[in-house]
Amino acid sequence: MKLWSSAPPISVTPMALPTVLLHDHLDGGLRPATILDLADELGYDALPETEVGALAKWFDQSESGSLETYLDAFVHTIAVMQTGAALERIAYEAVLDLSADGVAYAEIRFCPALHTQRGLSHAQVVEAISSGMRLGEAETGLKWGLIIDALRQHPWSEEMARVAIGHRGSGVVGFDIAGPEATNPPERHLLACRLVRESGLRLTIHAGEAAGRNGVRYIAAAIDKCGAERLGHGLEIIDDCDVSDGEIVDLGAVARRVRDRQIPLEMCPASNLATNRLTPEQHPIGALYRAGFNITLSTDNRLMSNTSMSSEFDFARSHHGFAIGDLALTTRRSMEAAFCDRDTKAALWEEVLAPAYEDAGAAVETNWI
Ligand SMILES: [Zn+2]
User: Fold this and answer.
1) How far is the CA of 66 from the centre of ligand 1 (A)?
2) How far is it, in rounded angstroms, from Cα 354 to Cα 149?
3) Is 312 tagged catalytic?
4) DSSP state string for 44-77
5) Which of 163, 206, 300, 309 could tie 19 with a disulfide, CB 3.0–4.6 Å?
6) For each successive 10 residues of the chain (369 residues), what is the average pLDDT?
């Protein structure tokens, strides 16, 4: 069943390799044309542009230079994500766009508390998004899971944790702490993290994304105090490494724990370049990968970072020398780190992912363990 006309999304490049996406925010991946449609329907008249091309350009925050400025753009996407029909449509279109880009499995994250301005309950928010994901899956075959976000600058993380725990039947597979990092350490949300862990739900935390001198400390807090199984971004782990001529030659105590425990880093290069004023070559993904860290690749916010999985792969290939075997290993690690069940992983790897990478020339283990 198709509910909405699916105008072709912008900036999606079909690619041959199927991918696994672990870190993608629903409110950062809307189609500009859909934002205009929904603003019209909802009577929201504060959009900065009224023409689709100009609006897409406005949302591209590649030059924002700081996480705080980058996050400002979300006020306009959140504004049109306030009805069940809008959320269902946005989730459905996200699945179509990801599938068109080659994504075989996606974990989509959102914060229910941001979508209650017009009276939706947290449960209604989750159900509407879950419904849109199911419609998209029925049309494309893309497999998915939902991650519920708490926002680190707000005190209601326990409430979001309970929403997550209560909606496992709707496809929720994990919990995350997101938002402006600089002065908001993850251990402020210890109780929410404990509730999640004790429920058996999975936990990832944005840490070392753009915390400056606190980055390494926040990464340590996320894994040691909060019990995060994956790290959102984690790129500031490079600040705990000795680097010489572009290669890591020694590790501090926190970097050693992250590497030795193989804690997956959900790296989102296009987003990181925008929020940390990095040139492509300054991004630490290549050095971390070669030093044995568990690197995965994601998009973060496809609209604000004007990116896609295929362009993140192109980035790793063209700026950091990832060959087909490296992309296959990154995809295998992403599938291993996913919060879905083992049967889903085995089926995707053996039937979709491994054959494609093998066909492309990578030497891969074709069986799941
Ligand atoms: Zn993120």
Assistant:
1) 14
2) 31
3) no
4) ----S-SSHHHHHHHH--TT--SHHHHHHTHHHH
5) 309
6) 45 68 98 98 94 94 78 92 98 98 98 98 98 98 98 96 97 96 93 98 96 95 98 97 96 98 97 88 97 98 96 97 97 98 98 96 93
Domain spanning 31-357, CATH architecture = Alpha-Beta Barrel (3.20)
**Among residues 93, 209, 236, 266, which one is catalytic?**
209
Distance 291 CA to ligand 1 centre (A): 24
What is the rounded CA–CA span in Å between residue 9 and residue 46? 23
Q: Are 95 and 136 in contact (CB under 8 A)?
A: yes
Q: Which parts of the chain fold into alpha helices (H)?
A: 32-42, 52-59, 67-72, 74-79, 84-100, 122-140, 157-166, 190-199, 215-220, 253-260, 269-276, 285-290, 309-320, 324-337, 342-348, 354-359
Q: How far is the CA of 159 from the centre of ligand 1 (A)?
A: 20
For residues 192 and 161, what is the distance between their CA atoms, to the nearest angstrom?
6
Look up the pTM and report it. Answer: 0.95
The alpha carbon of 4 and the centre of ligand 1 are apart by a number of angstroms equal to 28
Gap from CA of 178 to ligand 1 centroid (Å) = 6
H or E segment to which residue 19 belongs: strand 19-25
Burial of 25 (0-12, 13-18, 19+ CB in 10 A): buried
- In this prediction, residue 13 carries a pLDDT of 42
